[in-house]
Design brief:
The complex is a heterodimer. By secondary structure, chain A is α/β, with parallel strands linked by helices. Chain A is built from 9 helices and 16 strands. Chain A has 2 domains: 89 residues, Elongation Factor Tu (Ef-tu), domain 3 (Beta Barrel); 158 residues, Rossmann fold (3-Layer(aba) Sandwich), CATH 3.40.50.80. In chain A, the strands form 3 sheets. Chain A has a 7-stranded antiparallel β-sheet with strand order 6-1-2-5-4-3-7, sandwiched between helices. In chain A, helix 5 packs parallel to helix 6 and helix 6 packs antiparallel against helix 8. Chain A is globular, with a radius of gyration of 18 Å. Helices cover 33% and strands 18% of the residues of chain B. Chain B has a 5-stranded parallel β-sheet with strand order 10-9-8-11-23, with helices on both faces. In chain B, strands 13-21-14-15-16 form a 5-stranded parallel β-sheet. In chain B, strands 3-2-1-4 form a 4-stranded antiparallel β-sheet. Chain B starts with a helix and ends with a helix. The chains are: A alpha/beta, B alpha/beta.
Amino acid sequence: MFQIVRKQTMAKGTIVRNDVSAPKIAAKVRPGQFIILRVNETGERIPLTVADKDSFAGTITLIYQVVGKTTALLRSLNEGDTIKDISGPLGKAAEVENIGTVIMVGGGTGVAILHHVAKAFKEAGNYVISIIGAKDKEMLILEREMLAISDELIITTDDGSYGQMGFVTDPLKKYLEERYDVKLVYAVGPIIMMKFVSQLTKKHNVKTMVSLNPIMIDGTGMCGGCRVKVSGKTKFCCVDGPDFDAFEVDFDELLNRNSLYIKDEKESLLASIR
Amino acid sequence: MLDHDVKYLKFRSYLSTYCPHCHNSFNRELQGDKTLNFDAIYEGEPLELILSPYLDVFEVKTSTKLNDDAVLDDLLCPKCKKSLINKEVPCGECGSPVGEVIISAFSKLMPFYICLQHGCEWHGLTKADERKIKLKIPRQDMPEQDKTLRVHNHQEVPYGYTSELALLEAGRCLQCKTPKCVEGCPVNVDIPKFIALIAEEKFDEAAKKIKETNLLPAVCGRVCPQENQCESKCILGLRDKPVAIGRLERFVSDFERKMDLVKPPMITESIGQKIAVIGSGPGGLTTAADMLLKGYDVTVYEALHETGGVLTYGIPEFRLPKSIVQFEIEYLKNLGARFEMNHVIGNILTLDELLEHFDSVYVGVGAGLPKFMNIDGESLGNVYSSNEYLTRMNLMKAYKFPEYDTPMPTGNKVVVVGGGNVAMDCARTAIRTGSLEVTIIYRRSRHELPARGEEVHHAEEEGIKFKLLTTPTRYIGTDFNTVKGVECLQMKLGEPDESGRRRPVPIEGSNFTFECDLAVVAIGTGPNPIIFQSSPKLKRNKWGYVEVNAETNETTMENVYAGGDIVTGSATVIEAMGAGRIAANAMHKKLSAIREQKLKEKKKAAKKAESLN
């Protein structure tokens, strides 16, 4: 049993931040890694990325968007309530080195993962340029936290209600054209965003890593549900990833696979509300 | 039928199946409706008694009216026409001249006498007679759920033996002096001994006998491929069918559990050394149990949220009820095992870190990485690995969706690729979750199907179709990126390969398309990389599995042992258990030596201190 010690809702209640007491995981988890949780006995196993950790307090920070029944159930839990199972850390950690200038691109809830990784890049001594985007001002998360760990922070919103109007690719394009010292672009967010980022960086030939978030069940390499095609080979995101070289990933296939359960998810959510 | 007849027959419900004079068997084949026919002659008229050993329903077919007392005395053997009651036999207990023979009781399979004067009971038969009788008993089938009913539920298919059937089957064992069956068992269960105990009706003792060497009899009795192991060596198999060892094993362990006779043995004092077991599958559980019994402190680490490994996530409920697995694990907990769930070793703790806290580590993580064929369309929706399909169904209980949150993969026309037990499990799960048509696609012929005969038989009974000598070449998707068909190639058998099986060769131009809306790929598994990622010292063999010393199962890392699928690749439950046992023995030997060494040093130091004083 894992206790929720802090709960905070963001973005009109659609995004929730939970600090969960899990000392063993907090001691081990590295940026880019994720956990799998099951809220209760009849629950689903869902993967969530660890947005931050406090190994001193023994807590990990989970940030998730409410999309289906399980996340809705998770949101219904309050401080002091417990989550039945948390397994982790899972997946490989992001490769963080001191390489110079890096651009961190995050969209939507992806900013949660980005934060943990960007923090590590900053601590490793890199010059960190962060570009984070959201649909509108309300949906933007972790602005303050990102500001604290970035040398430059650009914010974009689709409707222009905050920061620059447009997508994260616009300022990224500008940076890539103006700066020649960018060694790495790390992107995490909606698959379509990662796809466009990688198309853009490929033109400028800048190494790009993406953190993928496919469908997953066990998270230990057992089910193969999280398979993605990377340089033509079938890879399992949970043991071979979640970070992959963006130029090798077959984004279209991933898009198709991730949309498989949207209908089921909605049904399940509706059934749970009824 | 008259009341008193019922009484009489019930009183003899272990009833007589062999004539004491001519050994004529009255047990005419077990009938389809689960009855035993029993012929005799009464007052010159043939008498047919039909009794069901399962339901206790009896019927007498005779034109003569049976009277109250005469029934027993006047029954004649239809073959030799002698009385079934041998009145010349003196009572073996008290010596009185009249003894009554109740021919061969099910239990003893030898004449069973009751002294009519004093009611003493005894039995006696020469060895040769006994053997003759034994050889006449046919192998007993297990009663099972009707095939038309069971495709609509997830309950276990066979009901298991009743005690009558078990006694009859146990009676078939010839009690060989040098039993071959024991050699055929990877953990060397003392098979003749436990069968003898069953024949003596000491079912709980029989269960304890098995548990001396096999911790999971209820599991093994159900899922072991006995026909390739113990039963393949049975001497009876040469002329008839072998003794149904697995079914008997299952019977006694079920008996013990249902009668609540399971008691964890007393454990000798803890010896202070600690063992970590990674993976709570059959191999890990065996190692854990063996080490617990030897007095070690055992902690089992499990990656998932449920214990049991493949027994829980892989084998479906209808083949191995999960309550049985949990019962066996509960037994281990009572022995003192600690279970740590949700611990993926390699991530949360590495082998090196474990070795800091534990004296020995056993790696029994299984080979859980599903294989794919790497053909077009494998990433389409509704194309699953067998692992994912079964994990969803068994571990996550998707078949109970929406009570459980995990969505259930369903399809009307299902294709399962592969011919092993896992493929059968997937196909049979699919038919139970409402699929209209389930087809197994296998690239060789029926003869080469790696699944157990029993599984193939059950699958066929349930209406699963087999498309043999066929291999998929690509999956075809709909506009919504879900599968709508599979393109296949016809195969023919060529020369035998290294495994001795004839290699399938594709026939050019024989492509055809097979419609389906759910496909499950069950073509085997490979080693999971997680544990190797954090332990580069752990050497892998050319197939990627852990390299071990075959005698001790110790890996290239000192004090780290491994066994089961992570060493051999996909194999059986009992083989994993055998590997766990080898490792446990080797660990015990090594750790005992260390303990003694330390004790010696301590004594030496104490002596030294004494002499100094």
